[in-house]
Design goal:
By secondary structure, the chain is mostly beta strands. It has one helix and ten strands, in the order αββββββββββ. A five-stranded antiparallel sheet has the order 6-5-4-7-10, with no helix packed on it. Strands 2-1-3 form a three-stranded antiparallel sheet. The protein has a two-stranded antiparallel ribbon with strand order 8-9.
Length: 143
């Protein structure tokens, strides 16, 4: 018998999302990135710190969310190197890491480092990347 896999929460991610208030309810996230700050949402009802930022809490379904800043430094849990199949406009190889920033863990792009320099436990800091079209995406650099 084949066991059925289930996911608690699945979401899609546009690699280059629209970032203005006209197109995105979470535009404050991108505004903070432009200022060099890593923000997310926190549920005012149950206290859950959410990643990615959301408009509704998946824990208690409350819409009462506020913005909270994550710590300036994070830590690499594990990393991988992508050598093919990048989206247009992204240069290979790409390095991605599973990162811990305060209470949240997420996957982030590592820039300015060679794979040999990376290891679990190494510290990173936000280094947002401006794209050619003016949008900004989160990226992280070794400290």
């Amino acid at each position: 018998m084949v066991e059925k896999l289930t996911w608690d929460y699945v979401y899609g991610c546009d690699p280059v999302p629209q970032q203005t208030s006209e197109f995105n309810k979470l535009h404050e996230y991108y505004e903070a990135l432009n200022e060099g700050r890593l923000m997310t949402t926190k549920c005012d009802a149950c206290g859950q710190v959410l990643w990615p930022p959301r408009t509704v809490c998946p824990e208690c379904m409350s819409g009462r969310l506020s913005w909270t800043q994550l710590p300036d430094e994070g830590e690499i849990i594990v990393f991988t190197v992508q050598e093919s199949g990048a989206f247009p406009g992204f240069t290979l190889p790409l390095i991605f890491a599973y990162l811990q920033f305060g209470p949240v863990r997420f996957i982030g792009k590592i820039i300015g480092a060679e794979p040999e320099e990376l290891a679990p436990g190494k510290k990173v800091r936000l280094q947002p990347e401006k794209q050619e079209d003016g949008r900004i995406l989160p990226a992280f650099r070794l400290i």
